[in-house]
Amino acid sequence: MLKALHPDLGGDKEEFLKFLAWYTEQHAKDKNFKAEVVKRLPSQGNYVYRCEEFTLEEILTLKQKTLVLPVEKKCPDCDGTGYDRCKSQVCGNCLGTGLIETLSSRSKDKVYVPCPFCGGRGRVQRVICSTCLGRGTIRDELRVVVDLPLGLEEGDYLYLPRDRFNLPQDVYVEVVIKDHPNFKRVGKDLILEHSVSVWELLLSDFIEVPTLEGRERLATSDLRISQEIVLKSRGLYYYERGDLKRGDLIVKLRVIYPIDLPLEVKECLNLAYETYKRLHQGG
Ligand SMILES: [Zn+2]
Ligand SMILES: [Zn+2]
Known about the structure:
- The chain is of the alpha+beta class.
- Among the domains are: 89-124, no CATH class; 179-283, Urease metallochaperone UreE, N-terminal domain (HSP40/DNAj peptide-binding domain, Sandwich), CATH 2.60.260.
- It is built from 7 helices and 18 strands.
- It has helices at 2-5, 13-29, 56-60, 162-165, 198-203, 220-223, 263-282; strands at 36-38, 47-54, 64-74, 89-90, 99-103, 110-114, 123-124, 137-147, 157-160, 170-177, 183-186, 189-197, 206-211, 214-219, 228-231, 237-240, 243-246, 249-256.
- The strands form 7 sheets. The chain has a 4-stranded mixed beta sheet with strand order 1-9-10-2. A 4-stranded mixed beta sheet has the order 11-12-18-15. A two-stranded antiparallel ribbon has the order 3-8.
- β13 (206-211) and β14 form a beta hairpin.
- The longest helix has 20 residues, at 263-282.
- The radius of gyration is 35 Å and the shape is rod-shaped.
- The two termini are 53 Å apart.
- The mean pLDDT is 88.
- One zinc ion binds next to loops.
Protein backbone atom coordinates (compact mmCIF):
# COMPACT_ATOMS: atom_id res chain seq x y z
CA MET A 1 0.00 0.00 0.00
CA LEU A 2 2.74 2.43 0.98
CA LYS A 3 4.63 1.88 -2.26
CA ALA A 4 1.74 3.08 -4.40
CA LEU A 5 1.10 6.09 -2.19
CA HIS A 6 4.63 7.33 -1.70
CA PRO A 7 5.26 10.86 -3.05
CA ASP A 8 8.42 9.58 -4.75
CA LEU A 9 6.25 7.43 -6.96
CA GLY A 10 3.76 10.16 -7.72
CA GLY A 11 1.25 9.00 -5.12
CA ASP A 12 -1.70 11.15 -4.16
CA LYS A 13 -0.71 13.59 -1.44
CA GLU A 14 -3.99 13.41 0.51
CA GLU A 15 -3.94 9.61 0.51
CA PHE A 16 -0.34 9.59 1.66
CA LEU A 17 -1.18 11.99 4.49
CA LYS A 18 -4.03 9.69 5.55
CA PHE A 19 -1.62 6.79 5.51
CA LEU A 20 0.89 8.71 7.64
CA ALA A 21 -1.83 9.47 10.20
CA TRP A 22 -2.83 5.80 10.31
CA TYR A 23 0.81 4.77 10.59
CA THR A 24 1.35 7.20 13.47
CA GLU A 25 -1.58 5.62 15.35
CA GLN A 26 -0.31 2.12 14.66
CA HIS A 27 3.15 3.08 15.75
CA ALA A 28 1.87 4.16 19.15
CA LYS A 29 0.27 0.74 19.59
CA ASP A 30 2.90 -1.46 18.00
CA LYS A 31 6.30 -0.90 19.58
CA ASN A 32 7.78 -3.95 17.94
CA PHE A 33 9.25 -2.11 14.98
CA LYS A 34 12.53 -3.35 13.64
CA ALA A 35 14.64 -0.26 14.17
CA GLU A 36 13.96 1.62 17.39
CA VAL A 37 14.40 5.26 18.29
CA VAL A 38 16.31 5.74 21.53
CA LYS A 39 17.41 8.91 23.27
CA ARG A 40 20.74 7.78 24.68
CA LEU A 41 23.47 5.22 24.22
CA PRO A 42 23.69 2.33 26.67
CA SER A 43 26.22 3.02 29.43
CA GLN A 44 27.87 -0.35 28.93
CA GLY A 45 27.99 -3.27 26.56
CA ASN A 46 29.56 -3.96 23.26
CA TYR A 47 28.02 -2.18 20.32
CA VAL A 48 28.89 -0.44 17.08
CA TYR A 49 28.34 3.31 17.05
CA ARG A 50 28.22 5.52 14.03
CA CYS A 51 26.89 8.88 12.98
CA GLU A 52 24.76 9.26 9.89
CA GLU A 53 23.14 12.12 8.01
CA PHE A 54 19.44 11.85 7.22
CA THR A 55 17.40 14.01 4.88
CA LEU A 56 14.02 15.43 5.86
CA GLU A 57 12.42 13.17 3.26
CA GLU A 58 14.00 10.17 4.96
CA ILE A 59 12.81 11.00 8.45
CA LEU A 60 9.35 12.27 7.49
CA THR A 61 8.06 10.08 4.68
CA LEU A 62 8.82 6.50 5.76
CA LYS A 63 11.75 5.81 3.52
CA GLN A 64 14.28 3.05 3.52
CA LYS A 65 17.94 3.76 4.06
CA THR A 66 20.93 1.58 3.36
CA LEU A 67 23.44 1.88 6.17
CA VAL A 68 27.01 0.82 5.58
CA LEU A 69 28.35 -0.45 8.88
CA PRO A 70 31.95 -1.19 9.73
CA VAL A 71 32.44 -4.71 11.10
CA GLU A 72 35.43 -6.85 12.01
CA LYS A 73 35.39 -10.31 10.49
CA LYS A 74 37.68 -13.30 10.74
CA CYS A 75 40.65 -13.00 8.36
CA PRO A 76 40.04 -15.50 5.56
CA ASP A 77 43.74 -15.81 4.71
CA CYS A 78 44.88 -17.05 8.11
CA ASP A 79 41.52 -18.30 9.35
CA GLY A 80 41.75 -15.92 12.29
CA THR A 81 45.06 -17.22 13.65
CA GLY A 82 47.03 -14.12 12.63
CA TYR A 83 49.81 -16.25 11.14
CA ASP A 84 50.56 -17.04 7.54
CA ARG A 85 49.26 -20.49 6.68
CA CYS A 86 51.80 -21.16 3.92
CA LYS A 87 54.95 -19.74 5.43
CA SER A 88 56.58 -21.46 8.38
CA GLN A 89 59.81 -21.14 10.31
CA VAL A 90 62.06 -23.52 12.19
CA CYS A 91 60.66 -24.46 15.60
CA GLY A 92 62.75 -22.81 18.32
CA ASN A 93 61.86 -25.51 20.83
CA CYS A 94 63.24 -28.54 18.96
CA LEU A 95 65.44 -26.55 16.58
CA GLY A 96 63.70 -28.16 13.63
CA THR A 97 64.23 -31.79 14.59
CA GLY A 98 60.64 -32.30 15.66
CA LEU A 99 61.84 -34.25 18.68
CA ILE A 100 62.91 -33.33 22.15
CA GLU A 101 65.09 -35.30 24.52
CA THR A 102 63.69 -36.44 27.83
CA LEU A 103 64.34 -39.11 30.45
CA SER A 104 62.20 -42.20 30.61
CA SER A 105 60.55 -42.44 34.02
CA ARG A 106 61.13 -46.22 34.20
CA SER A 107 64.55 -46.91 32.75
CA LYS A 108 66.09 -43.47 33.32
CA ASP A 109 67.28 -43.70 29.72
CA LYS A 110 67.26 -40.87 27.28
CA VAL A 111 64.20 -41.04 25.04
CA TYR A 112 62.90 -38.80 22.30
CA VAL A 113 59.34 -37.62 22.13
CA PRO A 114 57.64 -35.42 19.53
CA CYS A 115 58.10 -31.73 20.23
CA PRO A 116 54.85 -30.48 21.81
CA PHE A 117 55.43 -26.98 20.49
CA CYS A 118 55.44 -27.82 16.79
CA GLY A 119 53.62 -31.14 17.09
CA GLY A 120 56.71 -32.97 15.82
CA ARG A 121 56.74 -31.12 12.52
CA GLY A 122 59.92 -29.20 13.27
CA ARG A 123 58.47 -26.03 11.82
CA VAL A 124 55.94 -23.59 13.19
CA GLN A 125 53.62 -21.10 11.50
CA ARG A 126 54.84 -17.97 13.17
CA VAL A 127 55.09 -15.68 10.17
CA ILE A 128 52.60 -12.84 10.64
CA CYS A 129 49.71 -12.92 8.17
CA SER A 130 50.19 -10.07 5.74
CA THR A 131 46.45 -9.65 5.17
CA CYS A 132 45.45 -8.88 8.75
CA LEU A 133 48.94 -8.02 10.07
CA GLY A 134 48.51 -10.59 12.80
CA ARG A 135 45.22 -9.29 14.17
CA GLY A 136 43.29 -12.30 12.94
CA THR A 137 40.43 -10.04 11.84
CA ILE A 138 39.92 -7.67 8.93
CA ARG A 139 37.67 -4.68 8.52
CA ASP A 140 34.63 -5.26 6.43
CA GLU A 141 31.48 -3.40 5.49
CA LEU A 142 28.01 -4.63 6.09
CA ARG A 143 25.07 -3.16 4.21
CA VAL A 144 21.82 -3.08 6.12
CA VAL A 145 18.55 -1.80 4.66
CA VAL A 146 16.49 -0.15 7.38
CA ASP A 147 12.84 0.90 7.21
CA LEU A 148 13.13 4.26 8.88
CA PRO A 149 10.63 4.87 11.67
CA LEU A 150 8.87 8.20 12.09
CA GLY A 151 9.86 10.43 14.97
CA LEU A 152 13.61 10.60 14.47
CA GLU A 153 14.97 13.82 15.90
CA GLU A 154 18.41 15.33 15.69
CA GLY A 155 20.64 13.66 18.28
CA ASP A 156 18.45 10.56 18.59
CA TYR A 157 19.90 7.13 18.08
CA LEU A 158 18.54 4.59 15.68
CA TYR A 159 18.97 1.32 17.48
CA LEU A 160 19.39 -1.83 15.38
CA PRO A 161 19.25 -4.87 17.66
CA ARG A 162 21.69 -7.50 16.44
CA ASP A 163 19.21 -10.38 16.39
CA ARG A 164 16.60 -8.49 14.37
CA PHE A 165 19.11 -7.37 11.74
CA ASN A 166 21.36 -10.41 11.77
CA LEU A 167 24.37 -8.33 12.81
CA PRO A 168 27.49 -9.38 14.70
CA GLN A 169 26.81 -6.61 17.24
CA ASP A 170 24.08 -4.17 18.26
CA VAL A 171 24.32 -0.96 16.25
CA TYR A 172 23.50 2.58 17.37
CA VAL A 173 23.32 5.23 14.66
CA GLU A 174 23.35 8.82 15.82
CA VAL A 175 20.96 10.94 13.79
CA VAL A 176 22.14 14.14 12.17
CA ILE A 177 19.55 15.87 10.03
CA LYS A 178 20.81 17.39 6.81
CA ASP A 179 19.80 20.93 5.96
CA HIS A 180 17.11 20.96 3.30
CA PRO A 181 17.27 23.38 0.36
CA ASN A 182 13.58 24.34 0.77
CA PHE A 183 12.50 23.58 4.32
CA LYS A 184 14.07 25.20 7.36
CA ARG A 185 13.72 23.50 10.73
CA VAL A 186 12.64 25.74 13.59
CA GLY A 187 11.83 23.72 16.70
CA LYS A 188 9.17 21.21 15.68
CA ASP A 189 8.04 23.30 12.74
CA LEU A 190 9.21 23.52 9.18
CA ILE A 191 9.39 26.85 7.41
CA LEU A 192 8.99 27.05 3.66
CA GLU A 193 9.85 30.34 2.04
CA HIS A 194 8.16 30.50 -1.30
CA SER A 195 8.37 33.24 -3.90
CA VAL A 196 5.30 34.18 -5.86
CA SER A 197 4.90 36.95 -8.40
CA VAL A 198 2.41 39.69 -7.68
CA TRP A 199 0.73 38.81 -11.00
CA GLU A 200 0.11 35.24 -9.89
CA LEU A 201 -1.17 36.42 -6.54
CA LEU A 202 -3.60 38.81 -8.23
CA LEU A 203 -4.64 36.83 -11.29
CA SER A 204 -4.63 33.14 -10.24
CA ASP A 205 -7.15 31.53 -7.91
CA PHE A 206 -4.58 29.11 -6.51
CA ILE A 207 -0.86 28.75 -6.29
CA GLU A 208 1.01 25.51 -5.65
CA VAL A 209 3.79 25.10 -3.11
CA PRO A 210 6.04 22.06 -2.67
CA THR A 211 5.65 20.02 0.52
CA LEU A 212 7.39 16.80 1.49
CA GLU A 213 4.24 14.83 0.76
CA GLY A 214 3.54 16.43 -2.59
CA ARG A 215 2.36 19.75 -3.98
CA GLU A 216 -0.13 21.75 -1.93
CA ARG A 217 -2.69 24.13 -3.44
CA LEU A 218 -3.22 27.38 -1.59
CA ALA A 219 -6.05 29.78 -2.36
CA THR A 220 -4.70 33.19 -3.38
CA SER A 221 -7.72 34.81 -1.67
CA ASP A 222 -6.23 33.55 1.64
CA LEU A 223 -2.73 34.60 0.64
CA ARG A 224 -3.84 38.14 -0.09
CA ILE A 225 -5.00 38.40 3.54
CA SER A 226 -1.87 36.86 5.06
CA GLN A 227 1.39 35.89 3.42
CA GLU A 228 1.95 33.30 6.12
CA ILE A 229 -0.08 30.10 5.97
CA VAL A 230 0.14 27.39 8.62
CA LEU A 231 -0.36 23.83 7.44
CA LYS A 232 -1.17 21.99 10.67
CA SER A 233 0.71 18.77 11.50
CA ARG A 234 2.96 18.86 8.45
CA GLY A 235 6.21 19.64 10.26
CA LEU A 236 8.67 17.46 12.17
CA TYR A 237 7.65 14.41 14.14
CA TYR A 238 8.44 14.25 17.83
CA TYR A 239 7.50 12.26 20.87
CA GLU A 240 5.49 13.79 23.65
CA ARG A 241 4.94 11.54 26.65
CA GLY A 242 5.22 8.48 24.43
CA ASP A 243 2.86 9.79 21.74
CA LEU A 244 4.06 10.59 18.27
CA LYS A 245 3.16 14.19 17.42
CA ARG A 246 3.89 16.42 14.49
CA GLY A 247 4.73 20.12 14.27
CA ASP A 248 3.45 22.48 11.59
CA LEU A 249 4.60 23.55 8.17
CA ILE A 250 4.59 27.33 7.90
CA VAL A 251 4.56 28.68 4.38
CA LYS A 252 5.95 32.19 4.16
CA LEU A 253 5.31 33.89 0.88
CA ARG A 254 7.65 36.37 -0.63
CA VAL A 255 5.86 38.50 -3.16
CA ILE A 256 7.97 39.40 -6.17
CA TYR A 257 7.19 42.67 -7.89
CA PRO A 258 8.31 43.39 -11.43
CA ILE A 259 11.44 45.52 -11.49
CA ASP A 260 10.76 47.14 -14.84
CA LEU A 261 7.29 48.38 -15.57
CA PRO A 262 6.86 49.32 -19.25
CA LEU A 263 4.65 52.32 -19.91
CA GLU A 264 2.10 50.14 -21.67
CA VAL A 265 1.76 47.89 -18.61
CA LYS A 266 1.54 50.92 -16.34
CA GLU A 267 -1.32 52.29 -18.43
CA CYS A 268 -3.15 48.97 -18.17
CA LEU A 269 -2.63 48.95 -14.43
CA ASN A 270 -3.92 52.49 -14.17
CA LEU A 271 -7.01 51.44 -16.04
CA ALA A 272 -7.38 48.40 -13.79
CA TYR A 273 -7.00 50.57 -10.70
CA GLU A 274 -9.60 53.05 -11.94
CA THR A 275 -12.00 50.20 -12.70
CA TYR A 276 -11.39 48.68 -9.26
CA LYS A 277 -12.07 51.99 -7.50
CA ARG A 278 -15.21 52.59 -9.55
CA LEU A 279 -16.59 49.13 -8.78
CA HIS A 280 -15.84 49.47 -5.07
CA GLN A 281 -17.30 52.96 -4.82
CA GLY A 282 -20.32 51.80 -6.76
CA GLY A 283 -20.73 48.70 -4.57
ZN1 LIG B 1 45.19 -13.01 8.58
ZN1 LIG C 1 59.42 -28.27 17.66
